[in-house]
Amino acid sequence: xxxxxxxxxxxxLIGLLQWSxxxxxxxxxxxxxxxxxxxxPAWPWSLRLSGxxxxxxxxxARRLAWTIVLLAALVFMLLLAIAWRRRRGWxxxxxxxxxxxIPWPEKGVVLVPAYPTSFSRSETLFSAASIAQGRKxxxxxxxxxxxxxxxxxxxxxxxxxxxxxxLNGPLLWRRGDGDLLWHILHGVRDRHGAATxxxxxxxxxxxxxxxxxxxxxxxxxxxxxxSAGFWANPVMLPDMxxxxxxxxxxxxxxxxxxxxxxxxxxxxxxxxxDPRLVTVVVRHAGRxxxxxxxxxxxxxxxxxxxxxxxxxxxxxxxxxxxxxxxxDGWLRAAGAPGKSAWSDDDLLCRSExxxxxxxxxxxxxxxAALIRRMDAEPxxxxxxxxxx
Length: 388
Ligand code: HEC
What we know:
By secondary structure, the protein is of the alpha+beta class. The chain has three domains: 2-33 and 47-113, no CATH class; 128-228, Cytochrome c-like domain (Cytochrome Bc1 Complex, Chain D, domain 2, Orthogonal Bundle); 241-352 and 362-376, 3-Layer(aba) Sandwich (Glutaredoxin), CATH 3.40.30. 40% of the residues lie in helices and 11% in strands. The chain is built from eleven helices and 13 strands. A hairpin with a 5-residue loop joins strand 12 (322-325) and strand 13 (331-335). Helix 3 runs antiparallel to helix 4 (88-101), helix 8 packs across helix 9 and helix 9 (206-228) packs across helix 10. The longest helix has 29 residues, at 2-30. Mean pLDDT is 87; it is low at 290-294. The structure holds heme C. Heme C is lined by residues 141-142, 144-146, 156, 160, 162, 164-165, 171, 175, 179-180, 183-184, 188, 190, 196-198, 200, 212.
């Protein structure tokens, strides 16, 4: 039970906070009560409710959950008082008592500064093309401080008032995408209002900024896979245009809801089709396919897709690598070139808490075990920092 509160319960609470604020913004937008910023409805307040701090302070999360439950009860009682005239006095008295026991959480924990774009959603949707665009902009505008690998070791880093952060840690996942967008276009300030990072709104448009966020996440994923050996923060399978069995090209995201296996083409034989997965062979532009058999099924020779996959895996040579994405589009497992068998231990994007080591004999079909685990441990609500 305690574990449920720490994972699914907390996850649901953070999701509820986010969802209810988005719904409110949507309603205000329909009523024409809010303006727009960077093409989307603008959050009109300088504060918002946040899930980030609840992850660190479980006590406050519990208080917030109780507050929500008791406020809902209060609303119910007020409605009851309106409807039930004869007992109105009693119901109102009970409501007053209820109000005194609401355990309000600390303001500083649940309310954080907000920007007009705090609830904006990415326009570029982590496509290989936008990752490529972000890569270009990063090299032009950001590399001098944030470094070639996003680790904050650029040549201008020592001259900054504060050292640029490592973009490969959890930072990009803790912040809302809309907050990142605001920071890139309008700069970052410290508590006293002094600029710590310059604003780029004069040289980048909104799409560039979304593309930069895609690129930084892809690079961050690859760098953590390189250093830690697993994806500490979940990363989507970059979207790419694929062609299946000679039909018209379609974005890979059209297969959301199905598991996808990506195979980076190499000189060795392409893997056989598997009914449990949609298999897509990604070719390096201009490179012939290994075997004639792999002409059937789904393929792409988009060089941006190849580069995006190289980035998320942090690998210098992609040829022969296989990747598995779950039904929600999250990348979950990667197999090095030459890998012939999977096991459920190959899950690279997973919860910290490992299930009890199984004492059963190893499964003959390792892919089945991996798929079972992938389905049983979905990636949870991500924004707000609660991952896996
Ligand atoms: C002149 C140096 C410099 C340049 C150029 C620069 N940054 Fe930064 N960046 C910083 C510093 C310093 C911080 C830390 C600011 C802080 O926490 O107050 C930062 C913070 C960030 C953050 C974290 C913001 C947050 O929410 O905490 C992101 C994301 C970021 N930069 C992205 C970019 C991108 C994208 C570019 C290129 C368009 C860029 N930066 C260019 C210096 C720079």
